[in-house]
Automatic annotation (TrEMBL):
Protein's UniProt name: NIPSNAP family protein
Domain NIPSNAP as annotated: residue spans: 7-99
SUPFAM superfamilies: Dimeric alpha+beta barrel
Pfam families: NIPSNAP
InterPro entries reported in the protein's UniProt record: Dimeric_a/b-barrel, NIPSNAP
Species assigned in the record: Luteimonas gilva
UniProt signal peptide: none
Length: 105
C-alpha cells in the first residue's frame, strides 16, 4: 500500500477554482482504483497551502493510474482547469507507507 501526499501552494484568490479541481480528482482517483482521502483547503492560518492524500494498493498500481490518466479525457479536463485558472502556484508530491497497530489484521 502506498499513499501519495500532495502539498499545494495555491492562489488564495482562486480557492473556488482549486476546490473544483480537487473535487474532480477525488472521483478520478477512485475511477482508476485508488482510495482518495480528500483535499484539505486553507482555513485558519496559512491561506495559500492545500493538501491532498490518496492511496493505491501498490506503487505499481499508482504508476498504472499515472500512465492511464495521461490519456483520459476527464483527467485532461481537470489539468486544463488548473492551467486555465492558474489556481495552483506549485506542488510537491511525496509517498508514504502506512504503519498500523500490531492488532490490525
Amino acid at each position: 500500500m502506498v499513499t501519495c501526499f500532495l502539498r499545494y501552494v495555491v492562489d488564495p484568490y482562486k480557492l473556488d477554482d482549486f476546490e473544483t479541481y480537487g473535487r474532480m480528482w477525488i472521483r478520478l482517483v477512485k475511477k482508476f482504483g485508488g482510495d482518495h482521502h480528500g483535499y484539505f483547503m486553507p482555513s485558519e492560518g496559512t491561506n495559500n497551502v492545500a493538501l491532498a492524500m490518496f492511496t493505491f494498493p501498490s506503487f505499481a498500481e499508482y504508476e498504472r493510474y499515472r500512465e492511464a490518466s495521461m490519456h483520459d479525457a476527464e483527467c485532461q479536463e481537470a489539468w486544463a482547469l488548473a492551467e486555465r485558472t492558474r489556481c495552483i502556484v506549485s506542488w510537491e508530491r511525496s509517498f508514504f507507507r502506512p504503519v498500523f497497530s500490531a492488532n490490525r489484521a
